[in-house]
Amino acid sequence: MAELLNISFTFSFRTSHNNQEGKSPIVLRITFRGERRDIFTGLYCFKQHWDASSKRISRLEKQAGTINKNLEMILQSAKNSFDEMRFSRQAFTIDELVDKIKGKEERPTLLIDYLKEGNRKMLKRVGTEIVRATYNKYNRSLLYMQEFLETEYKVKNLSLQKIDMELIEKYF
Fold first, then answer.
1. Which of 29, 76, 81, 126 could lock onto 100 through a cystine, CB 3.0 to 4.6 A?
2. 79 plus 140 within the same structural domain
3. Which of these three, 41, 70, 102, is where a domain ends?
4. Is 93 helix (H, G, I), strand (E, B) or coil?
């Protein structure tokens, strides 16, 4: 089990891609469960300023301090994202981790949006499977839930993951 959670983060210097100034990108390489992914950091430097042993920019570069601090922040952010996913007790892939690090997380399903979608489906069934009065009851339930969330929780919408027994008991 511990083997499945082994991860490594290393910075590498990508000499095959140069920008217009002749600088090469610094890439964060993630190795997790035998798979590797590279994430471009958005930071660049000249080949002679890259210290391959420390995986950082050598102190000879005048912006070394700033760039190295940015690299440390990127590394810490990646580790935090990994820890957050690891402690969520949900299985995840390296691609999901990369998306989280890049900030491309899936938008959570929200209660009011879910209810509205259900009401749209009900509206399509009016006249064939259900009567208008039934649809009106579903719509009224949506309005009651919106009012409940605004008065009880002071929010307009709530993630489905946050629904618990306390919310259900308060609602009923």
1. 81
2. no
3. 102
4. coil
Give the containing element (helix H, strand E) for 28: strand 24-32
Question: What would you report as the CA-atom Rg of the chain, rounded to the nearest whole angstrom?
Answer: 25
**Nearest Cα to Cα of residue 29 among 105, 98, 103, 85:** 98
Distance from C-alpha of 149 to C-alpha of 109, rounded to nearest angstrom: 16
pTM of the model: 0.60
- Which of 75, 102, 129 is the C-terminal boundary of a domain? 102
Q: What gap in Å lies between CA 152 and CA 100, rounded to an integer? A: 32
Is the domain of 93 the same as that of 161?
Answer: no
Q: Which amino acid is at 57?
A: I
What residue has token string 């509206």?
A: 123
Q: What is the pLDDT of residues 120-140, one digit of tens each?
A: 999 999 999 999 999 999 999
Total domains in the fold of the chain = 2
Per the structure, the complete domain to which residue 148 belongs is given by 111-171
